[in-house]
Design goal:
Layout lengths: L1 H8 L6 H13 L10 E4 L4 H7 L3 H16 L13 E2 L11 H8 L3 E2 L10 E9 L3 H12 L4 E9 L1 E3 L17 E5 L7 E3 L13
Parallel strand pairs: 1-4, 4-5
Antiparallel strand pairs: 2-3, 5-8, 6-7
């Protein structure tokens, strides 16, 4: 998976998104608890970064995943909502940061400008890579605070291998990341899925 993601993200080979999106969809249809009406939301880039790159790789993956889900699940009714979640500021690259540094880096970075587009809806959040969970947690926390009925997360790859089960317990949106093994990941078989386990605390989150 790593070569494909690099070709998409850094070389701008956008057609590769269709192949990766199909792989994500193949994993998702294995999970009967994924609501057929889930609104698909990509992790946003800051507008200046997206303008520089010319695209948001997570949005391309989300769009490709939606198209594949419609073919694989005839009952699928969910739509893409590419502007529901937005990033209000540029953030430092997460590469090389510790978990606590990643949380601080992302604090307050995401927001939902129109909560009516989220309230009461099941959300499927799509991103390219899961590393420590800081981004997924921050986005999920914001979506839940905006009124989403549920938030599920799917990523094209994981930077570390976790327990074999693909559903993890986030006790709250600012809690500890799931335990992981010491073994480094082979990203070529790491399509990942997290079920509806994000709960919201009233207190401010680090996520």
């Amino acid at each position: 998976m790593r070569p494909l993601l690099h070709l998409l993200k850094y070389d701008g080979l956008e057609p590769i998104a269709a192949r990766i999106g199909n792989l994500i969809a193949l994993e998702l249809v294995r999970h009967a608890d994924l609501p057929a009406d889930a609104t698909i939301v990509p992790v946003p880039l800051f507008r200046a970064r997206q303008k520089q790159r010319g695209f948001n790789q997570s949005e391309l993956l989300a769009r490709a995943t939606l198209l594949a889900l419609r073919k694989l699940r005839p009952d699928w009714r969910g739509e893409l909502a590419g502007r529901v979640l937005q990033r209000r500021r540029a953030t430092q690259s997460q590469a090389g940061l510790s978990l606590s540094e990643r949380r601080r880096n992302l604090r307050g970075a995401f927001f939902v400008p129109d909560t009516e587009l989220v309230r009461g809806r099941n959300v499927l959040l799509i991103d390219d890579i899961y590393t420590t969970g800081a981004t997924a947690r921050a986005c999920s926390w914001v979506l839940k605070r905006a009124g989403a009925a549920s938030v599920r997360v799917a990523t094209a790859a994981r930077a570390q291998r976790y327990d074999r089960a693909l559903t993890y317990q986030f006790q709250n949106a600012g809690g500890e990341i799931p335990s992981r093994s010491e073994e480094a990941a082979d990203m070529s078989r790491d399509i990942a899925w997290w079920g509806n386990t994000v709960q919201v605390r009233e207190a401010s989150s680090e996520g």
